Amino acid sequence: MWNKFENMLFMLRKRGVQVVIDCPFCDITVEAMEKGVVTVYLDEIPDQKTTLLECPKCGEAIGAQQRMIYFNDTLDWGRAIRVWPTPQRILTESLPPVVASSLDEAERCFTGKAYLACAVMCGRVVEAICKDKLPNSRNLAGGLKALLDSQIIDNRIHEWGDALRIHRNIGAHATDVQITKEDARDLLDFSIAICDYIYVLTDKFEEFKKRKQS
Ligand SMILES: [Zn+2]
Fold first, then answer.
1. CB distance 194 to 160 below 8 Å
2. Residue ranges making up the domain that contains 163
3. Of 27, 182, 203, 210, which residue is 20 to 30 A from 7 by alpha carbon distance?
4. pLDDT of 57-96, one tens digit each?
């Protein structure tokens, strides 16, 4: 077991020169070069790394952190979170636990290259939102429609949610249809955007309106 981990860690060290991150200067996602790394170990296994990155487009410096993720008996660095110059928000802290755990699991599936499972988990994110907002909703399609009818989401978010529902069904049933890495990435991005819209931006806007009225 230990040898297996050692091997994986060796491969990660060899490979770990590029990190996918949102560049705040270019406002796009880039594969940035690692220029310097500090790794923190827990019981001799890497637990977290802080990296100085260089954006390949604008050449600016970006600071990022990644945690080690254990999935299906393998380990790999999780998604990089920007900590400098402007720290990226950690979305899951604003979500109800059932939504946060589904989104977290979807990210783990993506990192673990389990794209079908990622699609299923992205569907579970929307299902969890429906359960949280409308506890009486019976199925995902009905729940999404009810969210739309009660104006918790608008038409576009409903469309994204429906795409997640359809791909959840593709992922959950034993057919020949595959979910590609690109599809899984998009589904994950839609899930994050829906959570952001419902649990972060909507509250923020309501507070903004309240401040303007007072
Ligand atoms: Zn850049």
1. yes
2. 92-213
3. 182
4. 999 999 999 988 776 677 778 888 898 887 776 677 788 9
